[in-house]
Amino acid sequence: xxxxxxxxxxxxxxxxxxxxxxxxxxxxxxxxxxxxxxxxxxxxxxxxxxxxxxxxxxxxxxxxxxxxxxxxxxxxxxxxxxxxxxxxxxxxx
Length: 93
Description:
Structural class: alpha+beta
Strand content: 25-35%
Distance between the termini: 31 Å
């Protein structure tokens, strides 16, 4: 399996702009790991069940990165705090 490319949606970029530089660096470093293997493993990455489409969640401390896998691309949809993540999961399209 080759390396995946990371694509951030405008909403994900907007989300990152709300966090401090130190939190953004931590999140960015974890997102880089998705390039090697974006598929579920352990407790850090899980497929979200019972939602509008197949997407995944990466857990980084009290933050969550939501993404989809499209062929050889990892599309970062949102980067949210844990408390806002539940609202995102339950929201309609």
